[in-house]
Design brief:
The complex is a heterotrimer. By secondary structure, chain A is mainly α. Helices cover 78% and strands 1% of the residues of chain A. Chain B has 2 domains: 1-77 and 152-166 and 181-234, 3-Layer(aba) Sandwich (Rossmann fold), CATH 3.40.50; 91-151, no CATH class. Classes of the chains: A mainly alpha, B alpha/beta, C mainly alpha.
């Protein structure tokens, strides 16, 4: 709803007070995003970096599954492809990390488009089935001998985080970990901006229309096939970029980092964070990264049980996720908190 | 009385469609509900057989059935041929027959199959055919046969003539007359074709936006020029 | 040539396993028009339960029967307690619940029974190799069991009124209620039966691949492939599909892609079927969603 109200014209016409309030929120958000640079030591900063990356991956999934209703249980595959493209180019061809990013995005976009094509003919459950199979098969594909020359087989590939550039180190003291956090933050912010623009406009409404009323959408002259395949491509691209970032942050890729559990946790993150919600994707990323630890602290022996229970409880009690809860709490607190 | 309904209210979610109906079907009799599109006829049948939540009193042969689940009402002897027919399109004619008699444990199921073949000979010819591939008239016959195989006390029929050619409609009403004469089942009939319905029925009720505005013996209503003009439009 | 026959025989043997899991998937599909992603985990849990019975000293076939019963109850309970509340929710919710169950049951199994690989006995040992060494006694026996289960399931669905009622409830729940079928009970029965059939698959596969909590993950994939290949609404088709996938997998593994890429054979079959012939080789109903 707010997506429709927040069109630029309305924002421009809004009283100055609201613009001021917005700037305050923006500044607060920026401060909150940057504060960890000084507050956290390196391990926790690394974890936060990974959370940002996972949020980005969940965002990608949310575009195709949340907003467009095409259920993917295999987004870990795009994450893996993004990670491997970056790792191969950096480790085998000595590319700089930044140069690999657009490349990883493009490859994932194309693969996503290719997966999206047969997906067109598959109703909900069947697509879930295909992508589930994809997720299960990915590690085996990555280990395969024919690709070993590139992928490093079971051993995987080592690479290096991007170094903070000289102009920056000359002015402030910044460690590679801090810099990596910044890079992830900036890339993620750009992708979120892109997604936000996409979703709140005409395309977003078309995506949701094809999800909720496919027949009506088609009757209104929407090109459903094009919409769906493109949604898949954009979604895969974003999740792939997240994968590329993770390869750099972890400085290592190996097939067993991309088991089907990765795809599953992205899915769980999306549900818990909030289906079809940009804000929800942020919560989803935090969930993907931190909840396994929490689950493990509740029950060392069976963290998956806790994880599964959380998922089912959310589906039963809070189907619109944490984001939905936050939205409702805000609405109750302050009327229209925009 | 076979079916006695009083103060029946029902609706969908927050919207009320029926605002307190009283009507009845006699043992072995035919009652028809007439009314314009959207008057609430279909909803009435649904309320009787528990497909929508209903308040008020519905009793079948003296037993209260309001609020029971659809399958329990069916098991007490109410067979419903809903609008859209409610046959199992993916299954064969034979399987539809077997499902019709699903709740029965008596030994006469086979005899009733034969009786249906006699009433609806075309269904016997289509015995192994998928129901979805039958013609509209054959599907309506199958729906009625399926309902009768429950050996119901009461048969609810929702527009059995809907979408069928006049000749087929004649056929079906001919069969309904036979059923009435030979089986002793009570029928609650909803029909757009008021003339046909009144010919078959012995009691009629006129429904307007969820209220009964007129009722009486079918023959009288059929004779009444004024009613025919203002309510039935023929 | 001998090597080829050997691969073929091995394919038929593993195909039997896929066929029985495929049958379980089709069972759920018949009863609910859904595909249960946790089917493999449920079967693994059942197999561990069977092992517990056997280790407690019960004769194999007693343990087998008891496991069937326990699994049936487990499946029916899952339907009652977990699936029922979301019956009318969107499909995304269903998929989410299946995934949640997959996580819970898989992890619970490992937690209770341990993650170490275990040997599981076969009831068909001692016969020695058959058909000139092409098939082991267990392989032959498990193929026989699969076909036996298929015949029973087929008879159940087509000849008994309960089986017919289950199909009717899945196709058209409203009309099913009108003829007096208790649709809720049918759903629970369907889940129970599927879990029981899955447990048979688990007990037949465990002697071959050894028993561990993740035993079924790959097999589930092949079973999906088999079910889709044969037609997801068609029990005999799914069994045929399962056997076919087993043979294809072994031949492709031996002669084309190599054993390391076998899983992708399943993936290719799944995608191929869904794109080229979504109703499967023997399926009737074509789903027509945009
Ligand atoms: N499933 C439903 N959900 C919500 N409202 C409904 C539903 N079915 C019917 N209605 C409403 O209830 C009212 C009565 O409908 P009903 O189908 O009972 O009329 P009817 O007399 O059978 O009409 P017709 O002659 O067109 O079949 C209508 O206003 C209709 O819009
Ligand atoms: Mg009607």
């Amino acid at each position: 709803m707010s997506a429709i109200q927040d069109t630029p014209t309305l924002a421009a016409a809004a009283p100055r007070a609201s613009i001021a309030r917005r700037s305050v929120w923006l500044a607060l958000g920026l401060a909150a995003a940057l504060a960890p640079l000084w507050l956290l030591e390196s391990f926790h900063l690394f974890q936060l970096t990974m959370a940002v990356i996972m949020s980005l991956a969940v965002l990608g999934l949310n575009i195709v599954t949340g907003y467009n209703g095409q259920i993917s249980l295999g987004h870990g595959a795009f994450f893996a492809i993004g990670a491997y493209v970056t790792a191969i180019l950096m480790a085998q061809a000595d590319w700089s990390f930044y140069a690999t990013l657009p490349f990883a995005a493009a490859v994932c976009g194309m693969v996503g488009y290719a997966v999206g094509l047969p997906a067109l003919r598959l109703g909900g459950l069947y697509l879930a089935l295909v992508t589930f199979s994809l997720a299960v098969a990915v590690p085996q594909l990555l280990k395969h001998r024919a690709l070993e020359g590139w992928t490093g087989g079971v051993q995987g590939l080592f690479l290096m985080k991007p170094e903070p550039p000289a102009w920056l180190t000359a002015r402030v003291a910044i460690t590679p970990d801090q810099f990596m956090y910044l890079v992830a933050l900036v890339v993620a912010a750009l992708c979120y901006l892109l997604a936000w623009n996409l979703i709140r406009g005409r395309i977003g409404r078309a995506l949701m229309a094809t999800r909720d009323h496919p027949t009506a959408a088609e009757a209104m002259g929407m090109d459903i096939a094009a919409l769906k395949t493109r949604a898949f491509a954009v979604s895969a691209m974003i999740t792939g970029v997240a994968g590329a970032l993770s390869a750099a942050a972890v400085e290592f890729v190996a097939p067993d980092s991309f088991t089907f559990l990765l795809s599953i946790s992205l899915f769980v993150g999306m549900v818990v964070g909030g289906v079809a919600s940009i804000l929800g994707s942020v919560f989803g990323g935090l969930f993907v990264l931190f909840v396994p630890n929490i689950a493990e602290s509740i029950s060392r022996a069976a963290p998956g049980v806790i994880y599964g229970i959380i998922l089912i409880v959310f589906l039963f009690v809070l189907p619109d996720g944490v984001a939905g809860l936050v939205r409702r709490v805000l609405a109750r607190l302050g009327g229209r908190a925009s | 009385m076979l079916l006695e309904v009083s103060g029946l209210r029902a609706g969908y979610g927050p919207t009320h469609v029926l605002h307190g109906l009283d009507f009845a079907v006699e043992e072995g009799g035919v009652t028809t509900l007439l009314g314009a599109n959207g008057a609430g006829k279909t909803t009435t049948l649904r309320a009787v057989c528990g497909m929508v939540r209903a308040e008020g009193e519905v009793s079948l042969a003296g037993q209260r059935i309001t609020g029971l689940a659809t399958e329990d009402i069916a098991r007490r002897g109410v067979a419903h041929v809903p609008d859209g027919r409610g046959t199992f399109m993916e299954l064969t004619v034979e399987e539809n027959f077997r499902l019709g008699a699903y709740t029965r444990r008596d030994a006469e199921v086979q005899r009733d199959f034969e009786r249906m073949w006699e009433w609806f000979p075309r269904l016997k010819q289509r015995w192994k055919q998928q129901a979805g591939t039958l013609s509209g008239g054959e599907q309506q016959m199958l729906a009625i046969a399926r309902a009768l195989l429950l050996r119901p006390k009461l048969l609810l029929l929702d527009e059995p003539s809907f979408g069928l050619a006049p000749l087929i409609v004649q056929d079906i009403f001919g069969i309904l007359r036979r059923i009435r004469a030979e089986s002793g089942v009570g029928i609650l009939l909803v029909e757009q074709n008021a003339n046909l319905a009144l010919e078959l029925a012995d009691r009629a009720y006129l429904l307007e936006t969820g209220r009964i505005v007129m009722s009486g013996p079918a023959a009288e209503i059929r004779q009444d020029e004024a009613i025919r003009r203002s309510y039935l439009g023929y | 040539m001998d090597a080829f026959l050997l691969q073929l025989a091995a394919g038929i043997a593993t195909g039997g396993i896929y066929a029985s899991v495929a049958l379980a998937i089709v069972m759920i599909y018949q009863a609910t028009h859904h595909v249960n992603f946790a089917q493999g985990e449920m079967a693994t849990l059942s197999t561990f339960i069977a092992l517990t019975f056997i280790q407690a000293g019960f004769p194999y076939w007693v343990a087998f029967g008891a496991t069937l019963a326990v699994s049936f109850v487990m499946g029916a309970l899952v339907e009652r307690l977990i699936m029922r509340p979301v019956q009318h929710a969107p499909i995304l919710t269903h998929v989410g619940v299946y995934i949640g169950m997959l996580l819970i049951i898989g992890n619970l199994t490992g937690w209770v029974f341990g993650y170490t690989t275990k040997v599981f006995p076969s009831p068909f040992e001692g016969g020695g190799p058959m058909f000139g060494g092409l098939l082991s006694a267990h392989q032959l026996g498990s193929v026989g069991v699969t076909l036996g289960v298929l015949v029973l399931v087929y008879l159940f669905f087509t000849k008994t009124s309960l089986g017919l009622a289950m199909r009717a409830a899945a196709y058209n729940p409203r009309s099913a209620r009108l003829v007096g079928i208790r649709v809720d009970v049918m759903l629970a029965l369907g889940w129970g039966l599927a879990a029981a059939i899955g447990s048979v698959a688990g007990m037949m596969v465990a002697p071959i691949v050894f028993l561990d909590p993740n035993m079924m993950l790959g097999i589930l994939l092949y079973a999906f492939a088999g079910a889709l290949l044969g037609g997801i609404d068609n029990p005999p088709g799914a069994v045929a599909g399962g056997f076919l996938v087993g043979v294809l997998e072994n031949l492709a593994g031996a002669y084309i892609v190599g054993t390391e890429l076998k899983l992708s054979v399943a993936l290719i079959i799944i995608i191929g079927v869904l794109v080229l012939k979504p109703s499967g080789l023997f399926g009737r109903v074509v789903f027509s969603r945009v």
